[in-house]
Amino acid sequence: MWLTEGDRRARFRLPAETEQAADWLDPVFEPSVSVVDEQPLGYPDDTTDFGPTVISTGTLETVASWFDAVDGPEEMRRRLRPNLVVDAEPFWEDRLYGPPGETVRFSVGDAVFEGTSPCQRCVVPSRDPDTGEAIPGFGDQFAQRREATLPEWAAGEQFDHYYRLMVNTRTTEAGRGETLAIDDPVSIVA
Fold it and tell me: Nearest 5°: CA angle at 63, between 118 and 47?
């Protein structure tokens, strides 16, 4: 885990260095901070589908173009915080989930995952990752553009609203313990 505050930057390996991370964070926050390893899941945003989130380079480029205040796909990546970025066309990742209750198996190298749903977004993508400044109307504009660009292959019934992007996943039993590498092939498992 990387932590940044002003000119300070540090990296901690969790859960082994939770105490060191808490010591680094403590002077920044009031009251005191503690970092707790939430076994058995670790540190997930989604406690039901706690695999990596997936997005494509094309999606990052396209969504970045929706907002004048966003300085390209790298800034959009920092705003969205995906775990895996696949070099593919815009919204390619929408192939990685099916209707509610169904999963789509896919592999990254030897690791196998199940795509479950489009990721519901929070307020964080609307904010500049360096300054915290919000883009006014971000959520509404995002949802309008997302609805207009939703691919025909996407399981539309997964969208009770259109402020969703990236794919939530689960790591399969077979995928646990595998190592991922840059340029590993990504494919949908039949």
Answer: 30
pLDDT tens, residue order, the chain (190 aa):
677 777 888 888 877 888 888 888 888 777 777 777 666 555 455 566 578 999 999 999 999 999 999 999 999 999 999 999 999 999 999 999 999 999 999 999 999 999 999 999 999 999 999 889 999 999 999 999 999 999 999 999 999 999 999 999 998 887 788 888 999 999 999 7
Question: Nearest to residue 101, comparing CAs of 114, 112, 116, 120?
Answer: 116
Q: What is the pTM of this model?
A: 0.77
- Give me the amino acid identity at 44: P
- Which amino acid type is present at position 73? P
